[in-house]
Amino acid sequence: MKPFLQVDNLARHYSLPARDFWGRRERFVALEGASFEVPEGQILGVVGESGSGKSTLARLLVGLEPPDVGSITLGEQHVRAGEAHSGPLRDVQMVFQDPFGSLDPRMRILDSIAEPLDHAGLSLSPDERLSRVVGMLERVGLGSGALRRFPHQFSGGQRQRIAIARALITRPRLLVADEPVSALDVSIAAQILNLLLDIRAEFGLTMVFISHDLGVIRYMADRVIVMQGGKIVEAGDTEVLFASPRHAYTERLLSAMPRF
Ligand SMILES: Nc1ncnc2c1ncn2[C@@H]1O[C@H](COP(=O)(O)OP(=O)(O)OP(=O)(O)O)[C@@H](O)[C@H]1O
Ligand SMILES: [Mg+2]
To answer: For the chain, which has fewer Cβ within 10 Å, the N-terminal or C-terminal residue?
Structure first.
């Protein structure tokens, strides 16, 4: 299968406030030499300890930050380091760990979900706008009763459903999910994971799914990359990687999980 998302030699450095003996800003390498491919409709799992660069990778994929080195190709679109005006990729949306972070507390659910539509410049009539939002709310398991309410009036699981509705309203082709269920208890998390799997099948969505929970990764991902210290140290099909990890770090990661 032709890769839909292709990432080549991606890197991101942060300059730290500290200066060295010669007064140069010290650089911290948050991501280096990241290369991988994801075929259309597949889920790539990204796993690794805290600080390994998972969210940095996510921010580059959705265009919240530009890469310092390397390129990202999504379908026919490219982002290359140093090409500032190429702009971020279209058709990419993100779901975060904390839906409070992506939902404006003062905005009603209707407007929160519709906001990406409004920015897409589709010039929908108010009725069309409303019916799209209601359709998406129903798709994520909430009724139109939610429309006029505010984020704080929902549970964590419901808020994550709303954040997913907001991410999907423009029908993106790539969804980047950064620890989307880590703040939820187990049964609610399972519901959200199943919702994402159903939507993936229905929309033919390609996904980059980040989690530090190997059980979640195994449930969701077709392929997995393992990150450590800003580098991809292992990559493989989910079942193969779980059955026979090649890299010592992956093995340690797996053995640290009592369930495995
Ligand atoms: N804006 C920034 N400036 C300086 N350093 C940063 C910045 N953003 C991230 N870092 C550093 O880059 C490294 C990778 O961070 P990142 O958030 O990608 O890790 P992560 O794998 O998502 O971790 P976690 O599992 O805790 O979410 C960390 O050491 C972090 O401190
Ligand atoms: Mg993170």
So the answer is: N
230 CA: nearest ligand 1 atom:
14
Domain 42-66+97-255, architecture per CATH: 3-Layer(aba) Sandwich (3.40)
pLDDT 10s digits, 154-211: 999 999 999 999 999 999 999 999 999 998 999 999 999 999 999 999 999 999 999 9
> Is this model's pTM higher than 0.90 or not?
yes
- Ligand 1 centroid to 230 CA: how many Å? 9
Domain-wise residue ranges, the chain: 42-66+97-255
Q: Whose CA is nearest to atom 2 of ligand 1?
A: 14
Tokens of 197: 């799997």
Mutate to test the pocket of ligand 1, among 29, 31, 55 (most ligand atoms within 8 A of CB): 55
